[in-house]
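User: We ran a pulldown and think these components assemble together. Before we commit to crystallization trials, I'd like a predicted model of the whole complex to look at. Sequences follow.
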Amino acid sequence: MIENLYFYLPQIIIGTIVGLFTAIIGIFVILRKTIFMGVTLSQSITVAIIITLLLDLHFEGLVHFLAMILFLPIYLLHNKVINKDALLASGFVFFAALGQILTTIGANVQNHIVAAYFGNILFLSEKEWFNIVIPIILISIILWIFYRWFLAISFDQEYAYIANLPVNLIETLYFLVLSATLSLSIYFMGSFYSIAHLIIPGIIALQISRSMKSTFIIAILISVFSTIVGFIISLMEINIANTKFNLPTSSTIILVLSLNFVFLLFKKFTK
Amino acid sequence: MAVEKQTLIELSGVSIGYSNHRLIENINLTIQKGEKILLLGSNGSGKTTLLKVIAKLKKPIAGNISYNYKILSYVPQSKKIDHFPISMQNALRLYYPLFYPKQKQNQEIEAVLKQMNLWEKRNLLLSECSGGELQRVYLARALLRNPEILLLDEPLNAIDITSKQNFLSILDEMYQHLNCTIIMTSHDLSEKILNFFNKKLYIDHHTLNIIGGN
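Assistant: Here's a predicted model for the assembly, 485 residues in total across the polymer chains.
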């Protein structure tokens, strides 16, 4: 197991980094009450990944670009329709159905489904690991500069207009950061991992923290802890009735993350 | 000595609402520097929409508006904040320009929180504030911009009598200090409130009526 751990160290580091960035962005998503939008966006990114897999042009930049084009009609319409949730739900099922149809069209269907929904970090090449560097640097810079204004539009967008903040620019940057982070996260770890990291660490942190700073720190710690523990468990060989097998990485991490949430609920209800 | 009146906003033939449902029609109104205006009307009559049109947050569906002010600020209706772990003083920092010096921010926030009698509670989370405290935080946030026009949307709703009196005396103090124009919506017709304002507007049957002036 230790040798495995050493062998998979780069993947563990990458999984941890994309997880923690998704958790950070997730806090804004929760504060802005746009969880459904984040989840629908993640489905459009999943479709973009399937398209790039089918075309054998699987690189992160193209995934992000395609996902933005796919999601653009929903993004432009969501503030203009009477029922936002209905539009997002329709988008969600549309992208889920489109993803399934596309994987059926392509050869090697099973692998495509597994890669898009559960990630395939353990099988990505060394060259692909470095796809993370530039997006993460750009996301970090935007977050560092615009952190306060992202909070401002999350807290009271109308007042941001009154205070003459460049709300449209902030909104665009926020959407770019959200979609770039999700693209990265889904590209490496899969759609379910990304949705789980987008929501669970932030929800837990917001329940127990008393400042924005501690909210971000707690969410990061939960994300990092769950990713590392989940990775380690998935690398352990399990032997049941003389059958040896390993648990899938992304799903194990999601289970650890969910257990944190269950633990928090248990603590709250037994207080 | 005659004081020269400066027109800050002029609405001519303005209608507000939605294309299929007009809230107020044909508004002709001049808002001048230093006026204290009370906007009255029943629920859903268009008070908040009119404030938003004045604040450029909404467009009118007909008519012309000329804006001659530089800085306007807004105190929204008080909403319960239950999911945002942010303290009073940190909430006031959010709307500063990106590279505004931190030391200057601190000085301004300290001054305005002291003016609102909230300095001792500066680290209290907004979710733990009472209705009256939350209104004063919003007023503090609005004052940080040194506005020429201050819009207040039903600030006295859901606060007790003591907090109302406290809020009005702070508003009066602020008015004396800044000499800004105040436009406030309210349902409250108590004498103290009516006496505070020198112009009263009443929305009735989709029409804006002036029921008292200087």
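The first strand of chain B starts at residue 7 and ends at 18. That may be worth checking against your pulldown data before setting up trials.

User: Thanks, that helps.
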